[in-house]
Amino acid sequence: MKEKPEKIHQDTIPLRYQVNPFDFFSDLLCSFSDQMIHLVIMLDGQMNHDALVRAALLATEAEPVTRCRLIQENDMLWWEMNPRVSGKDLVTEFSGKDPVHHLQKALSDRIDPFIGPMVKIVHIRSTEGNEDILVINAHHASMDGKGMKDFTGLLLSLYKSIQNEVSVLIEPTGMSVRILPRLSSLVPDLSTSADIQVHWSDKFSVPTRSLTCEKQVFSLLALNKERVDQIHSVRKEWGITLNDLMLAVVATACSRITDGNINDIHLLNTIDLRRYLTRVPERSVFNFATAFEVAIRVHPDDSLRDTAIRTHEMMKQIKKGTPGIEAAIEAEYLHDAGCTAARSGMLKQWNGVLAEGKRSPLFTNTGIIYPEQLDPGIPVAHAFLLPTHNLPPGFSFAISTFGDEMTLSSSYGMPAFDPELVRTLYTSLDTILPGHEEHPGTYSVL
C-alpha cells in the first residue's frame, strides 16, 4: 500500500479541520476502489471556458472542502486547506470534433485525496458544433451523489451569473457542517466491543475471468421519456417504488446469466443517511451515504411482477428499522481505532474477498436530477451520474434520472469482466424492464 505524504512544507501553517467517520471510511475504501464519483452533462451549446474557470474558483471557495486534501498525523486523518489552488488545478479543457470520444479520458482523471483538490472539472469543447460536454469528477471523501448535485448546481449557477454579468453573493459553507452526529447514539443497546470488523458480502458476483484491471470501463443503457413513462406506469400499478422495481430487475438479470443456478441474489443497496439528520443544510456537500445488503429471491418461474412485489415487501420491512445504521457505526468504530488498525482490518477482509473471487454488486439509485438544478444558461440535453469504480471482483450498477429520461450504468474493470458478458447482462436488463418492445434502450460503452 502506498505511503501517504505526511505534510507539505509551506511558509504559513495551513488550516486543518476534523475529518468525520465517513470521510475517513472513504479513504479506507481507496484500497480497492478509486472512490471517484462522476456527473456528466451533455450541452446543447458551448461554454465560455474562462467563465467556467472563474465559476469553479468561486464554487470551491464557497465549498472549502473541495480545496482541501487529506493529511495523516498521529494515526488520524485531517482535512488541510490548500490556499494556493488555481484555476488550472480545478478545470481541464479538451477539444475535438466529437466530444464523446474524449469522455473516457475525462472520466479517467483520478484524484489523489492526499494531494487534492477534491474536485476536478473537465470541459470537452466541440470544435465543429454546439455540443460541449462538462464532466465533474469528485472524490467520495468530500461528497456523495447528493453533494455532487448540490455542488454542480452551485457551479452552474455561478457560471450563468458570470456570463450575465450579475453579481451574486454566495455564503461559504463552514467546515463545521461536516461534523455529523454519531449515529451509534441512535442504538441504545449497541455493543462497546472495539473489535475491527468489516463484513463484505461474498454471496454472488458477475463471473470474473481474472482479478486484474487494466482499464476502467462504463456501460450505459439510455431510456427515453416514453420508456420511462411506461416503467413508472407499471410500477405504480403494482404499488411499488422505482428503487424496488430496479432491484428486482437487476436481480432477475443477474440470475439469468447464471442460468438460474443462483436464486438468492445479494446486492449492496445504497442509502442516504441524511434521513437521520434533524436538519439538512441547503447545500449538503458532504458524504453521508452507505449501503446495506439485501437478498432478493428470484424463482425461475416467477414473473417480474412477482419478484418486484416480493422485493418491495422485503424493503418495507427493512425500512421500518434503521437501514444503514450498522454501516455507519462500523465507520465510527474504524475512525476511533485510528488509521493503522482500520487499514489493517479493512485489507484483511478485502484479501479474503479476493481469495474467494466474488463480491456482491453495488446498486445505487442516485435519484432525480431536476433540469432546473443544472442551469448554466445553456440548454442541457442530458445529464447522468456514474457509479464509483470498484476493483475486481467488484461490479457497480447505478440509476440516474434526468427529467423524463433515465440512464442505467455500470463501472467495471477490463479484462476482469468480459465485455460481451456485460453486454449480455445489459440486453437482459433492457428486455426485462417494461416497455422494451415499443421503446428499446440504447446501449453504449465509455
Describe this structure in words.
- This protein has 446 residues and is of the alpha+beta class.
- It has helices spanning 21-29, 49-62, 87-90, 103-107, 145-163, 225-238, 242-257, 304-319, 325-337, 339-356, 419-432; strands at residues 16-18, 36-43, 68-73, 76-81, 91-96, 119-126, 133-139, 213-223, 264-272, 289-297, 362-369, 380-386, 396-402, 405-415, 442-445.
- The protein folds into 2 domains: 16-177, Chloramphenicol acetyltransferase-like domain (Chloramphenicol Acetyltransferase), CATH 3.30.559.10; 197-445, Chloramphenicol Acetyltransferase.
- The chain has 11 helices and 15 strands.
- A hairpin with a 6-residue loop joins strand 6 and strand 7 (133-139).
Task: Let me know the number of strands.
Answer: 15
Strand order of the largest sheet: 10-9-11-13-14-8-15
Count of domains:
2
Number of helices: 11
Class of secondary structure makeup? alpha+beta
Write out the CATH superfamily name of the largest domain. Answer: Nonribosomal peptide synthetase, condensation domain
| Most strands sheet | 7 strands, mixed
The separation of the N and C termini measures 29 Å
- Tell me the helix content: 25-40%
Provide a compact summary of the structure:
The chain is an alpha+beta fold. It has helices at 21-29, 49-62, 87-90, 103-107, 145-163, 225-238, 242-257, 304-319, 325-337, 339-356, 419-432; strands spanning 16-18, 36-43, 68-73, 76-81, 91-96, 119-126, 133-139, 213-223, 264-272, 289-297, 362-369, 380-386, 396-402, 405-415, 442-445. 32% of the residues lie in helices and 25% in strands.
